[in-house]
Amino acid sequence: RERHRAKRRDGDREKKKRRKGRRRRASRAGEREDELQARHEKREAGRRKRAKNYQESEGRERDEEEQAQIKTGKTAKTKKNIKNEKTRKVEQEEGEAEERNAKGKKKHGSAKKEEKDEDGGKCAAKEKTQEVKKKKHKRKGADTLNSLSPEELEKLKEAVDERKKLIQGLRGKPWSMKKKLVTLRESQEFVEKYEGALGKGKGRKLYAYKVMMAKKWMKFQRDFENFKTACIPWEMKIKEIESHFGSSVASYFIFLRWMYGINMILFGLTFGLVMVPEALMGRPYGSIPRKTVPRAEEASAMDFAVLWDFGGYAQYSVLFYGYYNNQRAIGWLKFRMPLSYFLVGVGTVAYSYMVVIRTMARNANESGVGDDNSFNFSWKTFTSWDYLIGNPETADNKFASITTSFKEAILEEQESRKDDNIHLTRFLRVLANFLVLCCLAGSGYLIYFVVRRSQKFALDGLDTHTWWERNEVNMVMSLLGMFCPMLFDVISALENYHPRVALQWQLGRIFALFLGNLYTFIIALMDEINLKREEEKIVKFNITTWEASLYNSTVSENSTGPPITIQPADVPRGPCWETMVGQEFVRLIISDTMTTYITLLIGDFLRAVLVRFLNYCWCWDLEAGFPSYSEFDVSGNVLGLIFNQGMIWMGAFYAPCLPALNVLRLHVSMYLQCWAVMCCNVPQERVFKASGSNNFYMAMLLVILFLSTLPAIYTIVTIPPSFDCGPFSGKKRMFDVIQETLESDFPAWFSKVFSSASNPGLVLPFILLMVLAIYYLQSTSKSYKEANVELKKKLQTQNEENKKKNKRAALKAQMDLEEARKAASQTADSSQRLYHGKNRRNPPAPVREQGLPATRAPVPRNYHHGNHGAPGYLPGFPRQSEPRMHRVPSLQRH
Amino acid sequence: MGTTASQLGKDLLSEYQVSAQNAHKRFTELLTKDEKDLPNTRVSMERVLTLPELKSNPFRKRICYVFSTSEQKDGSLTFEDFLDLLSAFSDSATLEIKSHYAFRIFDFDDDGTLDCGDLEKLVNCLTGETDETRLTTEEMRQLINNILEESDIDKDGTVNLSEFQHVISRSPDFVSSFKIVL
Q1: pLDDT digits over A329-363, tens only?
Q2: Residue A378 CA neighbour count, 13 Å, CB half
Q3: Strands B159-160 and A681-682
Q4: Which of A335, A783, B62, B178 minimizes the number of CB atoms within 10 Å of its CB?
Q5: Which residues belong to any copy of the EF-hand domain (chain B) (predicted)?
Q6: CB–CB of B112 and A806 under 8 A?
Q7: Shortest Cα–Cα distance, B20 to chain A (Å)
Q8: Which runs of consecutive H residues, i.e. helices, occur in A232-274?
Q9: Are the Cβ atoms of A377 and B150 closer than 8 angstroms?
Q10: Confidence at A413, pLDDT banded by 50, 70, 90
Q11: For residues A253 and A530, is the Cβ–Cβ distance under 8 A?
């Protein structure tokens, strides 16, 4: 074919020769070079019809242009000339040679005038051929603007879009980085070039600018991402733990970090909006009675024992509710202190709710479809290995647990397990639950008893009692929290549950224990609040008489002299139940923290040290035998964290220092526990997956959040604040501060609107509307779920059908083949055999295409590793775009 | 020293989703003194497997084979291969990439599908080398039948890539566990 083409061209040349004798010769050398190039080009062009169309139209364009610009520089001319040749060749291939030839001749003639002056056409030829491509592409931009038909424009746009898509999806392609980079560069160049061409002249500049900005922006984003990951605290620590103990232990630390983040924000709120303004702008210490240590306590106010109990100076400081003044606006900023205090309290709770619920929703999204059980075995096989495990011991445990899970799954699959002694098991389970209930009731009663006793002690005065009697409540609570779970563990051995079910029971019981303890504590606290309020009434009465007597005495002594000033420390004052509640919570947190750390040191570290060193001189193997090293108890620790947080939420309103304390605690326990895990724990025997229980913990946190805000809100709403301490003193209820602000700080119409908006006639319909909206959303989500199930069923039936079809097709093809063979053997007609042979191969293919309607089209199995670099067919990459991709670099190389 | 890094260039390193400095440090630790001066050295599989991150992984050899670009198919890695490995196992790799490589790791005979032999080898890898944890032949048969029952959608007796990705994409914890961190 090449020869044929060459002949034609020669013939063409002959014609020209006749007209313009020897001048022809000079350009021929260049043409030869060009011919080779063009042929190469053409081969690719043949693969891609679009490109061909392109060249054609371009060529035409160029011809016209050439005639117009006959006086341009000679080098440019020659280049154009060469291009003409090429264009002609392409056109020849198209079979419209005659017409083009005539046109070409004409042009050629005009071009040759310039060529006359050119001395060394041969030398320049090589250069030219190289430049041809560049030039062509440069010009393409300008030419396409007014020359391309809408159809071609569409095609070009399509190509550019495809490239863009390729660039965007490149990160998700499973290729080696080398190949990715090559493809990326090529596609980017392609897009840059042609997208510029598609726009108008002005648009191209803008486009270049846009591309540059996009690049810069991408770079910035990537740097920012890197910066962000570098900013995540404790990332390396957690990764180290992850590689030793698997993802479940690491999930505890990630949870701890998350908690730390939340507490940081709560701390920021209370510290920035409550504590600092009061400390800086409020009245200084000692100016009013609520900000002074009473005369009776002054002597011991600086003692460490008192301070440790958060009495003395600590009690009369910004750390507690009672210190805050009820002045409406403080400082030169006119900061609305009581309002700020109230709003921060509400904001803390609201923010916590928001974060917890949002996280839960995200977790649910991530594992949204994951709860169906249709791929039980496949998941066990394909996804059960934790690639993070880098410790041989953990790996061994993982092997064992995977094996048992396989065996269990097989057993369950074969038959639901028969229990021959079902009555005994039932009895034991009931017994176990009874025992656990007894434990719970006992611990509840113990706490109640202890709290009541401590009130008696408190009435007597703290000094007369020992350390134990003073700290009884907290110690008892911490000890119960420590030992009851162990007891539950022993009891659960009776039940003979599947380990995962057993773990859930255990968690549920510990949860109930903690919750029971907390609520007994709160109920006891309520009693105490009521007692304090009784006391307050008496004090209030006494104060009025005291003031009256004071007034009378001053009046009677000298009516004209200045009134005598009384030291604020001498003024009698109420018991201030809010500060008391705050103190209780702070003490609880402190003792809880202490117990955690001490158990960690004794239970983990000391045990590990003893086991390690006593093992040299002991009669049995301590490391493998009884005491052994401790495991890291993920669920227990998570529960502890959750309850700790619950206490923070409960007490934060009355003790603004609580979030700060908690931040401190979490910070320390992060380091301490990281260290303890790495140095004295062994990997768990049963390695559980982290993600399965994630939302379980979050749900617990949400329950705790709700349960802990309940009593706080109850006290805020129903109990009137103390008359002489705290930001709300003198008001009937704490939330009156809102109304007060509305009345005095906002225009009159606003409060009117607000009051009419808060009337039940408006609020009730609104609530009704919300309920309806919730109902609607829920029912739609339910219907979506149903639709999902429906679709799944459909998919399955379709698969079945496809299978059947497949079989039928295969059968039919086989029969055809048989027939063909028979026919072939009879007539030995080769053409028929060929036809049937083809027929045999084809039918299964389309059926196979439909095999997976919901997923990607099946991938042929001919790939194997090592073909990354080869330009062959790759999975997940559409075949037709392949040649295009390789065309661009050949155009761009020079 | 450092020739490999300079060849790659800065923009290239940023394409990899791993901290390349750390990776480069760890990689050069595997090289001997003379090799450090040569560009594009290959590290043999045995030496790659001494990395503690891979040492206890039952699929360590498969991982090397899959990511190796060596002509001899000996599982040796260049620094670029090593970086490819790390980026496939990094946090930022998508589910598609991860599942693709997981498929190739599990495809022991490199024929593009997971057939019974592949699945058996896979299960044996997961249950460890010791005999006590190994499944009996009957259990193995049952298990493989169950796996094929679930995930072999077109019922051709093997699991192909798209079926595999279909199964994996529903799994809640594949992405979080298919990770290797240096």
Answers
A1: 888 888 889 999 999 999 999 999 999 999 888 87
A2: 26
A3: unpaired
A4: A783
A5: 94-129, 139-174
A6: no
A7: 12
A8: 235-245, 247-270
A9: yes
A10: low
A11: no
